[in-house]
Design brief:
DNA polymerase, domain 1, 14 helices, mainly alpha, hpI Integrase, Chain A, 3 strands, 3-stranded antiparallel beta sheet
Length: 315
């Protein structure tokens, strides 16, 4: 072929190839930077919590980054591939998979009116028992915390079995001193409830209030007018746990588990514990019957009934 003709034919091909690459790059970039503002606004208009909004946006964005398509091109297989990726490659917990399904189902099912989301089967929940701190461990954690603000925080979380976010958003007005109750406003599922306010906790909190003079939030953050951040509360507990020499893999949420378990072991009816924790279903509360030592502690191991004395043991 003549050089002139070859040049004429090859130039447009190269140009088209480069244009195609640029178009594909732009398409992937556009997908990657999908901000899901429509999803965020819809969730907020329905009064979903900040944590739920953040999670739903994250999983929808992560899904598009994984698939590399725009929302209008998504198929049933794309969603299944993403869930397999979360389950097998990232080894995500069942709770994570369920949150991802909820996030995708809301956007593609409720908002974009796609029906394939309803065909995705939810994984069975892992039957894991919560780690529970003993009374002695809780005592050490509180006793070895010198900072009056931090000690008040840990005491009130254990006193009422509060979730981390509930403790962070406690207001001065939420302490019902006459009835010795804590008013938990807008808890999980946007439900209000009352839980226990310990006399010991209130005594220390009054000293803390006198010293720090909080205005609205019981535990104010570093920024004026803001409550203490979730991460700050987590760090307070982690430092207290380490000082107390607790080697269990526990977080501040385990104070809530311990509160429920210790009440059950003390003879409190499960129905009252359900009310104090704010559980919608009694089945959720019943998990504490599996970690309580109230009954198990009275059972004697069959090994203790065997005559095994007299054998040689190498030291």
């Amino acid at each position: 072929m003549a050089p002139e003709l070859q040049a004429k034919l090859s130039t447009p091909v190269i140009a088209r190839s480069e244009a195609t690459k640029q178009s594909q790059t732009h398409h992937v970039s556009r997908i990657t930077h999908h901000d899901f503002e429509d999803l965020r606004r819809e969730l907020l208009s329905r009064k979903y919590s900040y944590k739920t909004v953040k999670g739903y946006v994250y999983y929808n964005r992560d899904f598009l980054n994984f698939i590399g398509k725009s929302p209008s091109d998504i198929t049933d297989n794309d969603i299944k591939d993403y869930l397999v990726y979360l389950s097998e490659e990232k080894e995500s917990a069942t709770s994570t998979l369920n949150q991802a399904i909820n996030a995708l189902k809301f956007y593609y099912g409720s908002m974009l009116k796609k029906k394939f989301m309803y065909e995705v089967k939810r994984p069975r929940k892992d039957k894991l028992l919560p780690d529970v701190l003993s009374r002695e461990e809780v005592s050490r954690i509180i006793k070895l915390t010198d900072n009056i603000k931090h000690k008040s925080l840990l005491m009130i979380i254990y006193s009422g079995g509060l979730r981390l976010g509930e403790a962070a958003r406690l207001e001065l007005a939420h302490l019902d001193r006459d009835r010795m109750l804590i008013f938990v406003k807008g808890a999980k599922g946007r439900k209000d409830r009352y839980t226990l306010l310990s006399e010991k906790a209130l005594e220390l909190i009054d000293r803390y209030i006198q010293k720090y003079e909080p205005k609205k939030w019981l535990f104010e953050g570093a920024k004026a007018g803001r409550y203490l951040s979730r991460r700050s509360i987590e760090k307070v507990f982690e430092q207290a746990r380490d000082r107390a020499g607790v080697i269990k893999d526990v977080s501040v949420h385990n104070l809530r588990h311990s509160f429920a378990t210790h009440l059950l072991e003390g003879g409190t009816d499960l129905r009252y514990i359900q009310e104090l924790l704010g559980h919608a279903s009694s089945k959720t509360t019943e998990i504490y019957t599996h970690v309580s030592t109230r009954s198990l502690g009275r059972i004697k191991s069959p090994l203790d009934n065997l005559d095994i004395e007299g054998g040689d043991v190498e030291e």
